[in-house]
């Protein structure tokens, strides 16, 4: 089992290890958004380089809308912002996990989570 890695500021390996590999997803980074308290998966969205940087700088979630082909500040219209409290890249650096404190539902339908269409298993 891999251990958590702690990096020192200015460490070149740390910078390389903590840089997402946007090339693997043709410039997009799948991002899993989880409630930091309940650990419930709220949504999956995509980030490009700019939305990733805006998220890190602002502490609020920004995404890239594949359908509208534009930046999307989560909650800008609805008021349902997401405050980022933790961010982690997976082992391949091509998927991002964000733990957030949500201010309202994550789904555009008004549901708390986008994952409410349960598939019954046999």
From TrEMBL:
Entry's Gene Ontology BP terms: L-histidine biosynthetic process
Pfam families (alphabetical): PRA-CH (PF01502)
InterPro entries: PRA-CH, PRib_AMP_CycHydrolase_dom, PRib_AMP_CycHydrolase_sf
Pathway per the UniProt entry: Amino-acid biosynthesis; L-histidine biosynthesis; L-histidine from 5-phospho-alpha-D-ribose 1-diphosphate: step 3/9; Amino-acid biosynthesis; L-histidine biosynthesis; L-histidine from 5-phospho-alpha-D-ribose 1-diphosphate: step 2/9
A Gene Ontology cellular-component term: cytoplasm
Positions with a binding annotation for Mg(2+): 90, 92, 94
Reactions the enzyme catalyzes: 1-(5-phospho-beta-D-ribosyl)-ATP + H2O = 1-(5-phospho-beta-D-ribosyl)-5'-AMP + diphosphate + H(+); 1-(5-phospho-beta-D-ribosyl)-5'-AMP + H2O = 1-(5-phospho-beta-D-ribosyl)-5-[(5-phospho-beta-D-ribosylamino)methylideneamino]imidazole-4-carboxamide
GO molecular function terms listed in the Swiss-Prot or TrEMBL record: magnesium ion binding; phosphoribosyl-AMP cyclohydrolase activity; phosphoribosyl-ATP diphosphatase activity; zinc ion binding
Cofactor note: Binds 1 Mg(2+) ion per subunit. Binds 1 zinc ion per subunit.
Keywords tagged on the record: Amino-acid biosynthesis, Cytoplasm, Histidine biosynthesis, Hydrolase, Magnesium, Metal-binding, Zinc
Compartments, record wording: Cytoplasm
Function in brief: Catalyzes the hydrolysis of the adenine ring of phosphoribosyl-AMP.
Record's subunit section: Homodimer.
HAMAP family attached to this UniProt entry: HisI
Name of this chain's protein: Phosphoribosyl-AMP cyclohydrolase
Organism, as annotated: Veillonella seminalis ACS-216-V-Col6b
Biological classification of the source: Bacteria, Bacillati, Bacillota, Negativicutes, Veillonellales
Gene that specifies this protein: hisI
